[in-house]
Amino acid sequence: DVKVTQSSRYLVKRTGEKVFLECVQDMDHENMFWYRQDPGLGLRLIYFSYDVKMKEKGDIPEGYSVSREKKERFSLILESASTNQTSMYLCASAFFGNVEQYFGPGTRLTVT
Amino acid sequence: GQQVMQIPQYQHVQEGEDFTTYCNSSTTLSNIQWYKQRPGGHPVFLIQLVKSGEVKKQKRLTFQFGEAKKNSSLHITATQTTDVGTYFCAGGASGSARQLTFGSGTQLTVLP
To answer: Is the Cβ of A58 closer than 8 Å to some Cβ of chain B?
Structure first.
């Protein structure tokens, strides 16, 4: 079974803090993705990576950065958290090509 | 960029009634995928459609891909309480590393 894990299920941070969200997959997938999910807006792609040290912006990259130093690990970084970044963050991974994505359990981040 | 619209946003049905959600893309898709997210859970892959006009069935669920490969639908016959959740379509574009653009989802409530 594919397993995608995320470092925290719930996280509360203060405005201006630097926040790290980590995602690990165990299936040797090339592609990894970070989405945020907000009511009525579906899943919006923040960043994705198709190889180690490679990254590309998604639809809403502003205020975020990512790091992929190892194939199995993809980190999302909020350099200076703001209240409008309060959301559910979902990580996903997939083999290269238009195939199914496997999602982690999500991290519900609250920025106060 | 590619946009995927999904309607309705919410649907309440009585148990035993049918349910349909529709997905429309602004561009021609190489494939369309459907995911289900149970309340409190993460999106889980249901199916992928690739061919123009393709129809696939999974028990009470019927998935269709339009002839022009720009729209799709998911139909559930005789809903059950276990069908509760949010259904997302996700459109794939050939040659795109990002793989998928998700619709905003349809949240299904089934009343017993």
So the answer is: yes
Token readout for A92 is 């996903």
Q: What is the pLDDT of residues B17-60, one digit of tens each?
A: 999 999 999 999 999 999 999 999 999 999 999 999 999 999 99
Reading the block at residue B57, the tokens are 């069935």
Can you tell me the distance from the alpha carbon of B1 to that of B27, in angstroms, rounded to the nearest whole number? 9
pLDDT in tens, B15-27: 999 999 999 999 9
CB contact under 8 A, B98 and A48: yes
Rounded CA-CA distance A66/A80 in Å is 14
Give dist(CA A5, CA A11) in Å, integer: 15
8-state DSSP, B6 = E
Instruction: Spell out which residues of chain B touch residue A44, defining contact as CB-CB under 8 Å.
Output: 102
Q: Is the dihedral of CA B48, B100, B28, B35 positive or negative?
A: positive
A33 → chain B, closest CA residue: B98
Check CB contact of B92 with chain A, cutoff 8 Å: yes
Which of A5, A38, A43, A46 to substitute to test the interface with B, most B CBs within 10 Å? Answer: A43
